[in-house]
Write a structure and sequence with these properties.
314 residues; alpha+beta; Gyrase A, domain 2; Elongation Factor Tu (Ef-tu), domain 3; 6-stranded antiparallel β-barrel; globular; YgfZ_barrel
């Protein structure tokens, strides 16, 4: 799998003012970096294989991979990182989409020997920007799992000894900037069941195995791949909001492109972050062939200006 983390990592470090780590511990769901779902049981691997887009059965111990969880129409409930330890798995899902995904997984698991436990409120998570670990590698030290992203890593303490103080929302912002700038989509209620995995770049992240057996939504995902039907792709944009607009664009917000003297729909926001009072970053689903010099704005904010950044590495 290609290391797609490096291309924007220096930008991330500059945004973080070279912070050594970002920590969120024992926070309410709205302030958690990730939801952590523990999956166990004799049928765990087999069941996940039939639910997710990744080849979970052949995932080696102490490795992780991206995966998508789709509905029957091939639209995403969630994008996740699947971590395999021994015979168990941990699903790392954005908190805004974890409940919807977990509900569906549990619904289909009633005839399998598999259990799902949301342990998000029982663990601590630390994102270390200066603690390199090879991409997709997992290390375990006592009760701490280290999840490798290449130049950085996420450390999850499965048995924290104490509850740490709230370090502020800026730490969550920093984690979300990292995901946004590396093209990792975070689905929200407004965007759940809106996109086929390829539209948000899950294939680029190595989160779809087109040779594995059937899984829910597989027909749509495979057809789009083999017939070349996908015309959308995730793109990173940076820019500014209108002077009178202090509200960040929500997931699902429409973006417009200038065509001649008119503005037409171009796509929609997946996630957005604020860098400072005047600059924002946006991850959006746009036409795959959109030109890099296209003028983009937020619908309803005529003074907003967004500039396309280079395409994500394949």
């Amino acid at each position: 799998m290609a290391d797609n983390t490096k291309s924007h990592h220096l930008l991330i470090l500059s945004r973080l003012d070279q912070a050594h780590y970002i920590e969120l511990v024992m926070q309410p769901k709205s302030q958690q970096l990730v939801s952590v779902i523990h999956v166990a049981g004799a049928d765990a691997a087999k069941f996940l294989q039939g639910q997710l887009t990744a080849d979970v059965v052949n995932l080696a111990p102490m490795q992780w991979c991206y995966a998508g969880h789709c509905d029957a129409k091939g639209k995403l409930w969630a994008v996740m990182r699947v971590v395999k330890t021994g015979n168990d798995f941990y699903l790392l899902i954005d908190p805004e989409s974890s409940d919807a995904s977990l509900t569906q997984l549990k619904k289909f698991s009633v005839f399998s020997q598999v259990t799902f436990s949301d342990i998000s409120g029982e663990v601590s998570a630390v994102f270390k920007t200066t603690s390199p670990l090879p991409l997709h590698q997992v290390e375990q030290h006592a009760q701490v799992l280290a999840i490798g992203f290449g130049p950085s890593s996420l450390h999850i303490d499965l048995a924290p000894q104490a509850v740490a103080a709230d370090h502020g929302s800026q730490h969550l912002d920093a984690w979300q900037r990292f995901e946004l700038e590396t093209g990792v989509p975070r689905l929200a209620p407004e965007t759940i069941a809106e996109y086929v995995p390829q539209m948000v770049g899950l294939d680029r992240l190595g989160g779809i195995n087109f040779k594995k057996g059937c899984y829910i939504g597989q027909e749509t995902v495979a057809r789009m791949h083999y017939l070349g039907q996908n015309k959308r792709a995730p793109r990173l944009l940076t820019g500014s909001l209108g002077q009178s607009n202090h509200t960040m664009p929500a997931p699902g917000t429409v973006l417009e492109q200038k065509l001649g003297d008119n503005w037409r729909r171009a796509g929609a926001v997946i996630n957005a972050v604020r860098y400072d009072s005047s600059e924002v970053g946006v991850l959006a689903v746009l036409p795959a062939d959109i030109q890099d010099d296209t003028n983009i704005r937020i619908k309803g904010d005529e003074q907003s200006v967004l500039t396309l950044r280079p395409k994500f590495d394949n």
